[in-house]
Amino acid sequence: MKRSALAIIAVVLVPGIASAQTLSAVAGLFNIFIGLMLVTAFLLFFGGLVLWFIRLGTSPTHRDEAISIMEWAVAVLFILVVLLAIAQFIQNHTAVASTVLGFIIVGLVAWLIFTVLTAEGPSEEKH
User: Fold this and answer.
1) What is the extent of the structural domain holding 25?
2) Long-range contacts of 57-66 (CB under 8 A, 24+ apart)
3) Which of 10, 13, 86, 112 gets the highest tally of CB atoms within 10 A of its CB?
4) Half-sphere exposure at residue 77, Cβ-oriented, CA atoms within 13 angstroms
5) Cα separations in angstroms, 63 against 43, 68, 77, 111, 125
6) Number of Cβ within a 10 Å radius of residue 11
7) Any domain includes 99
């Protein structure tokens, strides 16, 4: 009895949940995730900067580690800004983004089919 009730609830609710997740809504959730990662990258950068200043007068200066942390933070910041721009583009231009995404998927499927069809099988050597 419980299984059939759960099945009925799933059949009734799942299409509504699935249709609510449009490309723009998913990009909005991605936008929030990118924002949180940007804050984390800024904290990482300023943590490396503080570490660099703290190790300023030490005898064997390990300031290279702090510089490495800041370099990684800048690289992550750059990547996240680009991803944030892509998410904003998807939210503002959903039709164009859907078309481009469709072309990319069709291209990947065509490439996969072409690669599989032209792949040579293992060669059998006869002695």
Assistant:
1) 2-92
2) none
3) 86
4) 14
5) 18, 9, 21, 47, 59
6) 9
7) no
Domain contains 127: no
pLDDT at 38 over 60: yes
Report if residue 39 sits inside a domain: yes
Retrieve residue 47's tokens: 């943590």
Q: Is the pTM here over 0.90, yes or no? A: no
In a domain, 73, yes or no: yes
Contact 27, 90 (CB under 8 A): yes
Residue 6 tokens, joined = 């759960």
| Per-residue pLDDT band at 51 (split at 50, 70, 90) | confident
